Amino acid sequence: MSLIQTSTFLRRVLVLDAVSCAGLGVLLVTFGNGLSGVLSLPVGLLQQASAVLLPFALLLAFLSTRARLPRAAVWAVIVANAIWAIDSIVLLFTDWVQPNLLGTLFVAGQAAFVAVVVELEYIGLRKSAAAAPLPA
Q: Membrane-spanning regions, if any (predicted)?
C-alpha cells in the first residue's frame, strides 16, 4: 500500500471539503422542505444529497487529521467529488428535475465549488511526499 505524508495544504483542503459538505448537509436537512419550493428541486433529491454529504463530511474530517494516508484514499475522495460535480451538471440537462433559475444557479454553483475542491485536493496530493515505510 502506497502511503503519503499528507501536506498541510492537503489537510486544510480536506477540512474545507468536510466543513462545506457538513454545512450543506445540515442546511438541506434543516431547510430542505423550504429550499425545495424556493429552488424548484424535489425534496427527495435534497434529502438524499444530505444523506450522502453528512457521512462524507465525517470521513473527510477524519482523513484531515491523519499525518499519513494511503494514496488510494485521497484518490477516492478526488474521484467521489469529481463524480458529484459532473452528476450535478448532468442533472441540469435531464428531464428528471426542472429547477427554476435560482435552483439552477444553486446546483451549478455547488458543482463549480466542488470542482475547485477537486483541483485543490489534487494539488495537495501532489504536494504530499511519499511516506517512509513504517519500522517492522
A: 12-33, 45-65, 72-94, 100-118
Is this model's pTM higher than 0.90 or not?
A: yes
Total domains present in the chain: 1
**Beta carbons within 8 Å of 58's beta carbon, 6+ residues apart:** 18
Give one DSSP letter per residue of 44-110, joined into a string.
HHHHHHHHHHHHHHHHHHHHHT-SEEEHHHHHHHHHHHHHHHHHHHHHHTSSS----HHHHHHHHHH
- 96 part of a folded domain: yes
Question: How far is the C-alpha of 42 from the C-alpha of 117, rounded, in Å?
Answer: 26
For residues 13, 8, 57 and 24, what is the CA-based torsion angle, rounded to 10 degrees? -30
pLDDT tens per residue across all 136 residues of the chain = 689 999 999 999 999 999 999 999 999 999 999 999 999 999 999 999 999 999 999 999 999 999 999 999 999 999 999 999 999 999 999 989 999 999 999 999 999 999 999 999 999 999 998 766 655 5
Q: Please give the span between the terminal C-alpha atoms of the chain, in angstroms, as a whole number.
A: 15
